[in-house]
Design a protein that fits this description.
Helices cover 36% and strands 15% of the residues. The chain is an alpha/beta fold. The chain folds into two domains: 135 residues, Aspartate/ornithine carbamoyltransferase (Rossmann fold, 3-Layer(aba) Sandwich), CATH 3.40.50; 151 residues, 3-Layer(aba) Sandwich (Rossmann fold). The strands form two sheets. A five-stranded parallel beta sheet has the order 7-6-5-8-9. The chain has a four-stranded parallel beta sheet with strand order 2-1-3-4, with helices on both faces.
């Protein structure tokens, strides 16, 4: 089974049945990471380049682990330690990498749309590992897998996403992903961090976290993306945290069986209290674990190969 596409660029592009195929494939790959020898020969002889123009811990590591667990050769390139630092353009960098005949380039880039541009001028597959404030499709897929695994379904769930919605590629990909699979998504943010027109993506827009979470099944907290702010968007971190941070008092308004997601990195005591991040109902580390399986599934479905 393969996806009938060369690239994974956005969740907006993906059809519901493609998302479901990725999730079921990822579920089947989870057991590989539980084996004593965590490796299958599926992508032996394939070459995957992780080309990262922004910092990353979870995404880059899990793409690399996913490639290696499938026996592909994985090469990591950071812009800061490559010839990008000498002024080379994305196009020239990509063309030079393509000359070495890789099968897939995984790109993280600060500019929205960079993976689409790259996919247009190279022949190998491109996976978007996060582009500016646009999309982070593999993150949304691992979030969907985590919720489906924990709650048994996506259809009919109420998902509340809280934080810097304007600058969050995770929020955009998750709004597309959860709504395509039949969930109802609400977003909560200070007015300065709520993009105009967000409701046209099919989500509810709410002002107060306390009102939004009363009937929620899942709360997803987001980091403030300070690195993307051109001007200050809130008076103080303390005030942001008081109004939009998730603490025990606010969580008291939610259902008893609520689960909490956060894509990471978390800023403890800002958008999420430390005891909530570490609580049994926090799925933050389940998300990270599922990231490896989702990225194995993406490589498998794009690059092919036999399962054993
Ligand atoms: N969730 C996520 O994208 O984390 P990293 O920036 O560490 O990859």
């Amino acid at each position: 089974m393969r996806l009938k596409r060369k690239d994974i660029l956005t969740i907006e592009d993906l059809a519901k049945d493609e998302i479901e195929l990725i999730l079921s494939t990822a579920q089947s790959f989870k057991e590989v990471s539980e084996r004593e020898i965590k490796k299958v020969p599926t992508l032996r002889g394939r070459t995957i380049i992780n080309l990262f123009y922004e910092a990353s811990t979870r995404t880059r590591t899990s793409f690399e682990i996913a490639a290696k667990r499938m026996s592909a050769d994985a090469i990591n390139i950071s812009a800061s330690s490559s010839s990008v630092a000498k002024g080379e353009t994305l196009k020239d960098t990509a063309k030079n990498l393509e000359a070495m005949n890789p099968d897939c380039i995984v790109l993280r880039h600060p500019s929205s749309g960079a993976p689409q541009v790259l996919a247009g001028f190279i022949k190998c597959s491109v996976i978007n590992a996060g582009d500016g404030s646009h999309e982070h499709p593999s993150q949304a897929l691992l979030d969907l897998l985590t919720v489906k695994e924990k709650l048994g379904r996506i259809d009919g769930l109420k998902i509340v996403i809280v934080g810097d919605i304007s600058h969050s590629r995770v929020a955009r990909s998750n709004i597309y992903g959860f709504t395509k699979l039949g969930a109802e998504v609400s977003v909560v943010a200070p007015p300065t961090m709520m993009p105009s027109g967000i409701a046209s993506m099919g989500c509810n827009v709410k002002n107060r976290i306390e009102d939004a979470i009363t009937d929620a099944d899942v709360i997803m907290m987001l980091r403030i993306q300070l690195e993307r702010h051109k001007v200050p968007l809130f008076p103080t971190v303390r005030e942001y945290s008081r109004l939009f941070g998730l603490d025990r008092k606010k969580l008291g308004k939610a259902k008893k069986d609520i689960v909490i997601l956060h894509p990471g990195p978390i800023n403890r005591g800002v958008e999420i209290a430390s005891d909530i991040a570490d609580a049994p109902y926090s799925l933050i580390l389940d998300q990270v674990k599922n990231g490896v399986a989702v990225r194995m599934a993406l490589f498998y479905l794009l690059l092919g190969g036999s399962r054993e």
